[in-house]
Amino acid sequence: MNRTVMLSNNTGQPPLIPKETTSAITAATFTCILIICTLVANVFVCFATLRFDSIRPLTNYFIVNLCIADIFIAVISMPVWVLYQIFPQPHQLSSLLGVKFMLFWSSTDILCGTASILSLSCISVDRYLAITRPLTYVRCMTWRRAFVMIIAVWCYAGTVAFLRQPMRGGQSNTLYALFVLMASFVLPLIVIVVTYSKIFCVARKHAREMVRRSSISQETSEKFKRVSRDLKAAKTISVVIGTFVFCWAPFLILSVCYAYKVKIHMDVANITKWMAYTNALLNPLVYSFVDKQLRSLVIKVIICYNRQRDPEVHMPLRAI
User: Fold this and answer.
1) How far apart are CA 148 and CA 133, in angstroms?
2) Fewer CB within 10 Å of terminal CB in the chain, N or C?
3) Would you state the pLDDT for residue 6?
4) Distance CA 274, CA 123 (A)
5) Positions in the chain whose pLDDT score sits under 70
6) Are 69 and 119 in contact (CB under 8 A)?
7) Measured distance CA(93)–CA(24) in Å, rounded
8) Angle (CA) 317 319 320, round 5°
9) What pLDDT is stored for residue 9 in this prediction?
C-alpha cells in the first residue's frame, strides 16, 4: 500500500509528498526532543567547564570544543532532518529548500559530525599524554599546541566535508562515501582505540607493581592514588569507545551501502541517523557522569543555580 498521498501542484515543480501523518509527527517530535536535550546538555557542560577552574584546563577546552561541535549538530543538522521526516524523498525537500542549500547542509552535517568525532580523538590523545607521560605532559601539551589541535580538527573536518563535488554519476558518490567512512570514522577510531589501550596497559602495569610491594609508604600511597586514577580513566574510555562505535558505525556503514545502490528501508535509515545524532547528546552525558572532575563541576553549577534561584533557602540563620 502506498504510504504517501500525492498533493496537487500547479507550479511545475516536483510535487511535495508528505509521509503518513502519524509516523511523520512521531519522527519529527522525537527529533525536536533530541535537539532540545542536546542543546541543554552541551551548553550546560560548556558553562560548567568554563565557569570553574580545574586542574585539567587543557582537557576541558577539548571537551568544550566537543560540545561546540555537538551544538552545531543540534542547531544546523537536526532541524533539516526534521523536514526529512516529513518529506522522505531528496527531490521533494530540494524543491522546498533548494538544491544548493541541501548540498551545503549535507556538507555541514558531515563537517559537524567529523569535528565531534575528532574532538573525541583529541581528548584521548590528551589523556594518553597525561597518564603515560605525567612528568613531561606540561611541557608537551601547551596552550599553543592545544589551540593548534583544535584548529586542525575544524580544518580537517572542513576538508572532508566540502571535498565532495556535485558530480553526476554514482561512482563519485561511492568513492566519497568510502572516503568519509575512512576519514571520519575509521581513522579517529584507530586513534581512540590505540591511545586508550595504551592507557589501560599502563594502568595494569602500575597495578601489578603495587601488588608486588607489601610495604606501604607515602610514596607507595601516592602511586596507588595514581593507579586508581588511571584505572578510572580506562573505564571511562571504554564507555566512550562503546558509545562512539554504537552510535556512528551503523549510519556510516549504511551510507556506504546506499552509495552502492543497496536498497535500504526508510525506517532503518532513520534509526541509524538518529543513533548518530544521539551521540551528540550522549557525549556530554558520558563525560559528566563518568568523569569525576567534570561531574563535580556540573554539581557546582547546579548548586550555584539553586542558590541564585532560592536565596532565602540558603540564607544563613543569623541573617533571619
Assistant:
1) 20
2) N
3) 35
4) 24
5) 1-21, 52-56, 88-94, 164-172, 206-234, 236-237, 290-320
6) yes
7) 14
8) 70
9) 42
Question: What single-letter amino acid sits at 224?
Answer: F
| Cα–Cα distance measured from residue 157 to residue 111, given in angstroms and rounded to the nearest whole number | 5
Q: Is the dihedral of CA 250, 252, 257, 262 positive or negative?
A: positive
What is the Cα–Cα distance from 38 to 280, expressed in whole angstroms? Answer: 6
The helix/strand count (H/E) of the chain reads as 12, 0
pLDDT at position 231, please? 64
pTM: 0.77
Phi then psi dihedrals of residue 33, to 5 deg: -65, -40
pLDDT, position 137:
83
Q: Cell numbers for 29, please give them.
A: 517530535
Query: What pLDDT is recorded for position 154?
Result: 96
Three-state secondary structure along 247-312? Answer: HHHHHHHHHHHHHCCCCCCHHHHHHHHHHHHHHHHHHHHHHHHHCHHHHHHHHHHHHHHHHHHCCC
Of all residues in the chain, what percent are helix, strand and coil, respectively (each to 5)? 80, 0, 20
Instruction: Supply the pLDDT for residue 167.
Output: 47
Alpha helix positions (H), 52-169: 57-72, 78-86, 90-97, 99-132, 137-140, 143-162
Rounded to whole angstroms, the Cα distance separating 65 from 262 reads 36
AA letter at 70: D
Residue 135 has what DSSP assignment?
Answer: T
CA 293 to chain centre: 19
Report residue 149 as a C-alpha cell: 589541535
Give pLDDT tens digits for 169-201: 455 677 888 888 899 999 999 998 898 888 878
Give the C-alpha separation, 100 to 316, whole Å.
61
CA distance 120 to 241: 9
Task: Say how many C-beta atoms besides its own lie within 10 A of residue 155's C-beta.
Answer: 11
Q: Cell 567547564 maps to which residue?
A: 49
